[in-house]
Amino acid sequence: MASQSPVNKHGLSRYIPQHIKREVRQRSRFGCVICRRGFYQYEHIDPPFEEAKTHAPDRMCCLCGSCHDAVTRGQLSKALVLQKYRQISAMPKDVDPPSGPLDFHTGTAELSIGRLLYNPAVRSVLRYHGKDIIRVMPARKHGEPGKISAQFTDTDGTETLRLEENEWVGALEAWDIDVVGQRLTVRRQGGNKALELRLEPPGRIILAHLDMRIGDAHILVTEKTYAVGRYAVPAGFGGLPNVTAETVLWAHVGINIKRSHPDAIGINFTTRAILDRLDDYFVGTGQGLATKDRNMVMNTGSGVLVKHLGIAIGSGCEEMLITQVCAGVAQLDDVRSLLASRPDELCRFISIDAASRYK
Predict the structure, then answer these.
(1) Is residue 301 within 8 Å of 263, Cβ to Cβ?
(2) What angle do CA 128, 133, 139 make, to 5 degrees?
């Protein structure tokens, strides 16, 4: 079968500029205008691509492969597609959100966060004051699919995307949701990434990028590393002369969780009082190491406790390998830039005395 020509009879390239694609996605509310499936391709409605002289966003839309095939076979009309497109563009609040399936049919379910390696038995991957933000549920018996539930938010705490009942569901209020191959990317106004998932079916999702705020906490993730922190930095902390709304107390723990209790927690944002009680419960058990004031504790039962941040990593893990532990204060944008350009320097950077860094 002959390959498609790269241009049509008017010389219009099949390549659609990125800004045109983004406008079409936004007008289509990030999914197929017929069925709302979030895996799609770009369709020239009227005129069809063969007759088009330009890539006109008001005459293009997103269609999933199934609906696109139905149009090609004459089972759905172009007139219906155009009608649905106009309805969705005009009434965004009445539109169903885009969604797509997740493949966990083998029973496994794993979500990888910035080289934070964990045994799939760790069901609560990320918890904030008692609420599971990311939860993994491997199949209870053979033949059942595993499940991952998660709620991802933007830097202002607004939901951008969630995972539920073996599918992802995008937020209509997002500035942009782009699906290319196995990568699903959410961008905030201006084009900066808020979230990027890489799907590796069956059974695995890579959290390739995350820039998320939850209450007084912030989480930054890349494929190579991660950092978690709190905004509650008191004025003059550590001699820092310019504490601002973007100043964060950060922590990072390189940890490989090899064996754990089902109630174990990967990353837990909680209170110092709860961490003190957890420390008291496990003190003297297993293998442990702590600072003299027990402000930072490493124990095979309690995990790594960073008490002044109210953060525990690897709680309830019975066997783990810790490669790095660091904590310090730094501006949010500085840590963002570091993770993008020099992720291996994260621990050294946030451990440097903040007052000397910001003189």
Answers:
(1) no
(2) 130
Hey, CA dihedral for 319, 321, 326, 332, is it positive or negative?
Answer: negative
Tokens representing 97?
Answer: 């959100």
**CA 305, CA 314: separation in Å to the nearest integer?**
9
Other C-beta atoms lying within 10 Å of the C-beta of residue 324? 11
When computed from its CA atoms, the radius of gyration of the chain, rounded to whole angstroms, is: 24
Tokens of 234: 């008191």
pLDDT in tens, 169-222: 999 999 999 999 999 999 998 889 999 999 989 888 999 999 999 999 999 999
Q: Does the pTM exceed 0.90?
A: no
Which pLDDT band holds residue 45 (cuts at 50, 70, 90)?
Answer: very high
Q: Could you give the angle at the alpha carbon of 168 between the alpha carbons of 165 and 173, nearest 5°?
A: 125
Question: How many residues in total does the chain contain?
Answer: 359
Handedness of CA 208, 319, 146, 204 (dihedral sign): positive
Q: What's residue 209's pLDDT?
A: 96
